[in-house]
Amino acid sequence: MAPSTRYTIRVALIVALGGFLMGFDASVISGVVTFIEPEFKLTNIELGWAVASLTLTATLAMMVAGPLSDRFGRRPVLKVAAVLFTISAAASAVAPDYITLVAARMLGGLGVGAALIIAPMYIAEIAPADIRGRMVSFNQLNIVIGISAAFFSNYLILSLGQSDLAWAQSLNLAEWNWRWMLGVEALPAIFYFFALFSVPESPRWLVMHNKDEDALEVMAQVTNRAQAEAELKEVRASLDAEAHQEQASIRELFQPAMKLVLTIGISVAILQQITGINSVFFYAPMIFEQSGIGTDASFMQAVLVGLVNLVFTVLAIAMIDRLGRRPLLGFGLAGITICMLLLSYSFGQATYTLTNDVILALPQEINTEALLPLVNQTFDSDIAFSEAVSAAIGNDVYKAQQSAIVSGSIAMNPTLILIGILGFVASFAISLGPVMWVLFSELFPNRVRGIAISFVGLINSAVSFTVQLVFPWELDNLGNSLTFLIYGAFAFIGLIVVMRLLPETKGKSLEELEAELVRR
To answer: Is 282 part of a structural domain of the chain?
Structure first.
């Protein structure tokens, strides 16, 4: 491997740590919701807001990160993102109340949005063309690794808190488990901040600010001197040409010629989130607890979710240029539909019965005498069971002890739930997850690509925020079975829409796709 290639890989890996922090920050909350709901006595919407608030501020950051990086530089904005991650992690860990926790999460969301936009932009601007695709993919891969690391970190902290290790007890991992889950992110965030001092500024940004000599020095480190000089001339010519062009307007997206590409873009943006992926990533332990396996096992199975997501994302990156975008989306959406129907059926077949043995085994915090009228009653609905138990012992007590009560009362096949969740994550990771962003970079004409991606990305984030916000409410008011049935229905409708509208984009130049899709 040439020294220039090693240098490029090192720089790309450092910058892509922003993707790791983004994935970690977004998914670490999955292990926290089980504990903060009873501790802060949250309603369903308050719990959803604690999760979704990060996405809201991330969306705002995505809108301003680009212009800020154009003015101050890519590297300074990434450093600010690292600081925001650090402060957010520390403040979340010590939050004395719900409002402080949400405020700290929203602060972290600003870092998430900045990292999501700037990290891949920086890598694309510094990497040579022949390895640019692989280098940019580091960021997406790191996001997935961050998600997996959050699931594993949560499980490890929970397990250590229940151990007899003296150092674990001295850190109070048992009582402060959710606080440590949130706070541990500060360590990689601090490392990211200092690591960024070892990477140069983006050469394209340097040219934008008339620092051509500095840009040439950076380019020469990732390729040979002659190639660097040639690329510098191309960048300068491109920027000079753009300076004489009228800026694209969002109104151009709604011209009749753009109808097909905009319809496809909006459909895929909505579909990626409305099929429920962030319900799984952000609430995985809660979902597994609903199947009655208990808290510890639910956290362990969440680790499997992260690993499956990682493996199938790597497969998607390997196959997307071989099989094409359309086959991957078709296969993935069909898989999502089947898996959601399996989850709906499995939860729909569950029954709930409180026996005397179950009541005797419940924690002492529960007034078991209040449950005696429910002994040996069988409930076919999770909603009816929850309402009956909550009425008997109080909603706050039920929320705090829900895992123990459900695991002792439920009769179902939890293996089917695990198969359904893992199958859903695998189907998503090999299709909608990575393919959406590839399609966005290919579908829209050069002139409006930037503003078009921002527009559909905003729609994607808005749907993501809504799904995260209402998921706890859905479980309590619609039930597990109907909730997953709705996700399956959206996936089936999306499969039909995608197969009818989306042409294959593999192997076609951007100019060929523009001629095919933009019907002037």
So the answer is: yes
